[in-house]
Amino acid sequence: MIYLDNAATTQIDSDVLDAMLPYLKGSFGNSQSQHAFGRTAADAVLNARDKIAKLLGCRSEELYFVSGGTEANNTALKGICLAKGSGHILVSAIEHPSMIESAKDMAAQGFEVTFINPDENGVITPQTVESAIKEDTIFCAVMAANNETGVIQPVKEIGEICRKHKVFYFADCVQYAATNQLSVDFCDGLSISAHKLYGPKGAGLLYIKSGNKFSRLISGGMQERGFRGGTVNVAAVAGLSAAVEKAVKNQADEAEKIRKVKEHFVNRVLKEIHDTHLNGGGKILPSHANISFDGCDGENVLFALDLKGIAVSTGSACSAGAVNPSHVLTAMGLSPQRVKSAVRFSFGKHNTLSEADEAVEALKNIVSKIRSI
């Protein structure tokens, strides 16, 4: 099997799993319990929060452990809006479905929502953001890097514009964090998901800068300082912490390794398979390649590759099975055929040049057969 769908999820690292196991076995206590088992669990959560805060350059009390990027994105947008009560929301049209749908939920509650389209390269320009800001704009969401194309957004410039206009700026960093140095300097809030960092599923992080009021979405006990009820998944938090720490430590070397394999693959595909197009331009994550194959249906390419033991996708895993074409590629202004023929290849640190070559050879045969039908 060749796994080229690392944007959907990654294989958990053995040492990350090792960091989790103590809290699944002997130290299994509830972090809210007052006895020794509970204190051990609470210490693990405290240490994980402090460790990640140091790595991100923020205060521990600005971090909240959640179930993943989807919950973090929902909590940020809805939490800020509910605390404000009314206002105008800016959301890029290429956001993850969790942010797009959250914005639609708020529109149903009476908030005004503007979706900002990217340019033809998939970039949300700072100028477009600034021109869309109104006097009552309260929230802006532009992701750090897109999950379908891998296009990196000018988040520092967008953050400066939002700061100038006193607009809360949120950056979904779920895809970005695996291969890029991350800090909180440029934004008021961000999200991270462990399973995109070779960590466990069901573990995520929400950063909200101090001084910003937001309402909780999950009512219950006093977990996460009262902002997120429910028993804390201590093992998942330990895994998240270990995954973030490892990603930061090895980021530069692993990103370069991934880039070389991805670029080798892309160069061969574009050179050896005619009428193919790389979707997205400018700065792109070292891991992502979104490619359209003229005369093909992307799902047919996906299924044929799967039969050969090669895993890819046609877009966000959270949108799998959706009838509608990619909202990201559509917002970029690509033709319906180019959108329909797109396949996402996402590389990780375990992929090799020989795997890339095998995938190219399989693609050449598959595309040729599909086009001949």
What does the model show?
The chain is of the alpha/beta class and 373 residues long. The chain contains eleven helices and twelve strands. The strands form three sheets. The protein has a seven-stranded mixed β-sheet with strand order 2-8-7-6-5-3-4, with helices on both faces. Helix 2 packs parallel to helix 7 (234-272). The longest helix is centred in the C-terminal third of the chain and has 39 residues, at 234-272. It is globular. The chain starts with a strand and ends with a helix.
How do you describe this structure in short?
The chain has 373 residues and is an alpha/beta fold. It has helices at residues 14-20, 36-56, 69-84, 97-108, 126-132, 155-164, 234-272, 298-307, 327-331, 336-340, 353-372; strands at residues 2-3, 63-66, 88-92, 112-116, 137-141, 168-172, 189-193, 204-208, 276-278, 288-293, 310-311, 342-346. 41% of the residues lie in helices and 14% in strands.
